[in-house]
Amino acid sequence: MSEIFEPKNIVVTGGCGFIGSNFVHYVVNNHPEVHVTVLDKLTYAGNPENIAGLPSDRVELVVGDICDADLLDRLVPGHDAIVHYAAESHNDNSIADPEPFLRTNVEGTFRLLEAVRKYGIRYHHVSTDEVYGDLPLDDPAKFTEETPYHPSSPYSSTKASSDMLVRAWTRTYGLRTTISNCSNNYGPYQHVEKFIPRQITNIIDGVRPKLYGKGENVRDWIHTEDHSSAVWDILTKGQMGETYLIGANGERNNITVLRMILEAMGRDPEDFDWVADRPGHDRRYAIDSSKLQRELGWKPSHTDFSEGLKETIDWYVANEAWWRPAKEATEARYRAQGQ
Ligand code: NAD
Ligand code: DAU
């Protein structure tokens, strides 16, 4: 194991989004010595409410674009690490309009790497298992760090491109970087465009949930707090230049998850609509996280998916004021796509 890195001042990009804001909460709750500067453009997916209420001497929000090199020149000096979450993150949006994905996910990562090169600080790159493409439904194989890249969607191809930039900048310029590729997250503060929150909030609204295709596609669910603890371990204990896969053995097909939500919310498990499939829809994701567990000693703590799902449902029931403003526009977009 390499030396322990003890950051004091970190930049978290995308810290007003779903996973980034959960990471900020995680750091504030578990690492009192660390100050966090959140850099977030506050796109439709960013909400300052996600980090409201955290102590102002621990967390500062800077509203800005990761593509803005001048802003990075002002912001980065004085920090010892960047943890990069900011992205356009939704596959369906990338199919409808890929351009913002190229800009934020590829150019944005390039700008951050250039700032890291200039100021010599540590960089952790948050990526996705989707860079590996998909797995067959009827084969127990899982993704490992050695699986070749084979992205399918505009979103995942831009994330794969950003990973490649990190690898090239690390080798050529000797940057101190790590990459993590995580599976599907669930938990509080996830935008209502995503599968689990969309179905929970539809049910609250008396609207039938929407299932793509045959509902056979498998996702490997992990609670977002477990993603945060894994990123922290990689940031502080990871080997420079290495990639770590993050997952919690949470494989389930979509129809199973949807029926679990319906039942937990007291509805008939068949009370949903079949809708048009996503073009190029990845069949199955599955993560082998043994390298992370073996080398850094990480373990997930949310191992009961059904319990985590119930807590997530309760969170959306209790926080309607948080998700309500985004709901109508999101559903209008889906209607226009036949979904
Ligand atoms: P999200 O869409 O909820 O949040 C993205 C955040 O980035 C928002 O706050 C948004 O305002 C900000 N942002 C977007 N463009 C920006 C820009 N140009 N400059 C500054 N800020 C900008 O995304 P998420 O689901 O929280 O995902 C966060 C990261 O984790 C992404 O890199 C994603 O690829 C990765 N990831 C997500 C999952 C998942 O299940 N959601 C799984 C694995 C990896
Ligand atoms: O695997 C990690 C990825 O997980 C992240 O990189 C992405 O940022 C994140 O959005 C997520 O991607 P998915 O495309 O897997 O997530 P989404 O929530 O969009 O969909 C999950 C599954 O549910 C997928 O098979 C499509 C299906 N689906 C989705 C919606 C919104 C439905 O059946 N109905 C729906 O209404």
UniProtKB/TrEMBL annotation:
Gene3D superfamilies in UniProt: NAD(P)-binding Rossmann-like Domain, UDP-galactose 4-epimerase, domain 1
Matches recorded under Pfam families: GDP_Man_Dehyd
Keywords annotated in UniProt: Lyase, NAD
Reactions that this protein is recorded to catalyse: dTDP-alpha-D-glucose = dTDP-4-dehydro-6-deoxy-alpha-D-glucose + H2O
A molecular function (GO) term: dTDP-glucose 4,6-dehydratase activity
Its EC number(s): 4.2.1.46
One biological process term in Gene Ontology: nucleotide-sugar metabolic process
Residue ranges annotated for the NAD(P)-binding domain, each copy included: 12-312
Cofactor(s) recorded in Swiss-Prot or TrEMBL: NAD(+)
PANTHER family: DTDP-D-GLUCOSE 4,6-DEHYDRATASE-RELATED
Family: Belongs to the NAD(P)-dependent epimerase/dehydratase family. dTDP-glucose dehydratase subfamily.
Protein name per UniProt: dTDP-glucose 4,6-dehydratase
Organism, scientific name: Collinsella acetigenes
